[in-house]
Amino acid sequence: MKRILLMVIRNIFMVPYGWIRLCYRAAHVDKYTEEDMYRFLQWIDLHANRGGNVNIDVHGRENIPDKDGFMFFPNHQGLYDVLAIIEACPRPFSVVAKKEIRNIPFLKQVFACMKAYMIDREDARQAMQVIIDVAREVKKGRNYLIFAEGTRSKNGNRVGTFKGGSFKSATKAQCPIVPVALIDSFKPFDRNTIAPVTVQVHFLKPMLYEEYKDMKTTEIAALVQKQIQETIDANI
After folding, report:
1. Which residues of 22-38 are buried (b: 16+ CB within 10 A; e: fewer)?
2. What pTM does this model have?
3. Looking at the 3D structure of the chain, how many domains does it have?
4. Does position 100 have pLDDT exceeding 90, yes or no?
């Protein structure tokens, strides 16, 4: 909470202007291209991070596929995760998030601008429809991010269990899977401090469909989880 207040105070003159623009865009998403909307979100994100003493240390941008139509699978540490990746990633992407966060101010507007999907983990039919819809959009060239743990880890830089079902959209779309290792992403919002913090974002080598087509989704999940945890362990 302290860091969010710091972000607001240090950007006090741009907050009203930025908030009005964000709310307007969230309510009129079809008036803007995805690229234009993403650049706007990066502009807000950059000001928030600088104001809040958050530095993003990016590694492996060269691993992001040149062609759109891929999926990010990061570990999930907290509410700040998507904001870290927005600054780190030069390419527009959308998100599949749990419905419980759809009414959190600011994140609600950001996800609306990204045309994100909210998934109800207790409604199997709705969840399956989201998987189908995301796969269809990825095939058309949109990029998506899914947190395969399903919920944020309570153990800092220890990764939780990745769920095989989270990879069904990727296997249906036959798209590249890009593991993303987040380090210390829980610190900006989940610790009650305003001390400077560096969040590391590591884009790992993508898994192409030819590499995982014969694997079960549980096997893909275990492999991605292992790669992310090894990257975290090597960089903390």
Report:
1. bbebbeeeeeeebeebb
2. 0.93
3. 1
4. no
